[in-house]
Amino acid sequence: MLKDLVYHTPFFCPHLDRATRLCAVYERRFQANPRCLSVERGIERGVFPADCPYVADRPGYRPPVENLDFFGLGDLARQIARELGVTDEEFERARREALVAKGGGGAGGE
């Protein structure tokens, strides 16, 4: 059901170097991650931020919505995470990090 949709989630590809924002396996990215999108497909789907060089000057390009409250999607967030192969532990870790980032997750979680 959700396979052909792209969701912006707090779960990153394991091959993404988050410090450099570069793929660590770029030359073999499609073998390492069959869900990896080509640049053309990424542009079609609107997955690149507005400041990405691939789309910065592209007329009519609509970047993804920033600051989506992914965890506010409730059961849909869990369903998306499961389809991405995210474990329950990783889901909960990311949810806690999001709460802390919003200023709402002190000791004990919520």
Walk me through the structure.
- With about 110 residues, the chain is mainly alpha-helical.
- It folds into two domains: about 15-65, no CATH class; about 70-105.
- About 30% of the residues lie in helices and about 5% in strands.
- It has helices at about 30, 40-45, 75-85, 90-100, and strands spanning about 15, 20-25.
- A two-stranded antiparallel sheet has the order 1-2.
- A hairpin with a 4-residue loop joins strand 1 and strand 2 (about 20-25).
- The model has no long low-confidence stretch (mean pLDDT about 85).
Can you describe this structure in just a few lines?
It is built from 4 helices and 2 strands; from the N terminus they run ββαααα.
Shape estimate: globular
The helix content is 25-40%
How much is the average pLDDT?
83
First-to-last CA distance = 31 Å
User: Poorly predicted ranges (pLDDT <50, ≥5 residues)?
Assistant: none
Largest sheet entry: 2 strands, antiparallel
How many beta-strand elements? 2
Radius of gyration: 15 Å
Tally of domains: 2
| Helix-strand makeup class | mainly alpha
